[in-house]
Amino acid sequence: MGGGGVNTAPARVTVARNIRRLRQAAGWTQDEACERLAKHGHTWTRKAWSLAERSADDAHRARAFTADEVAALAAVFEVSPGDLFDAPVTFAPAANRRGDELWLTAGGTVECVGADDAPGGDWVRLYRPARQNGPSS
Questions:
Q1: How far apart are CA 118 and CA 137, in angstroms?
Q2: Residues whose CB falls within 8 Å of the CB of residue 34, separated by 6 or more in sequence, listed in order
Q3: Single pTM value for the model
Q4: Which residues lie closer than 8 Å to 30 by C-beta, 6 or more apart?
């Protein structure tokens, strides 16, 4: 996600903030996020996901994440594990639409772009929704 500035929050709080923001930006429910995480070898209930996200709001009761969980969460959101430790990037409200991609501009801002309008140049894709294959004919 990059370039969020100096991060003074405990790492577990930062990871919690980022998984909440990434999930919301993807337009997924907590149940949908749990299903995607299960595909990467970690089974969480919606309650477990909710508790993990709520860790973002209370550093004293924040849930610890294992290295394996961080790696799996990064795979779910198609970011590097290190990105989950960066100070959270604030996404545009429009990023909640399904099918959109999130891009980091050369200037350090995040833009929400329709999948067919992806920019080139010095922009970096932060999130691309998984493509669903339709039935073959």
A1: 28
A2: 43, 44, 45, 46, 48, 49
A3: 0.61
A4: 23, 46, 49, 50, 53
- Given a contact cutoff of 8 angstroms between Cβ atoms, the answer to whether 87 and 6 are in contact is yes
Residue with tokens 């999930």: 23
C-alpha torsion 17→72→130→100, nearest 10: 20
CA distances from 117 to 3, 5, 71, 111, 128 (A): 24, 28, 30, 12, 12
* Identity of the amino acid at 51: L
Helices 11-26 and 46-54 pack at an angle, to 10 degrees, of 120
Instruction: Please write the tens of the pLDDT for every residue from 37-88.
Output: 999 999 999 999 999 999 888 777 778 899 999 999 999 998 888 888 887 5
What domains does the chain contain, in order, with CATH numbers?
Answer: 11-85 (1.10.260.40), 93-127 (no CATH)
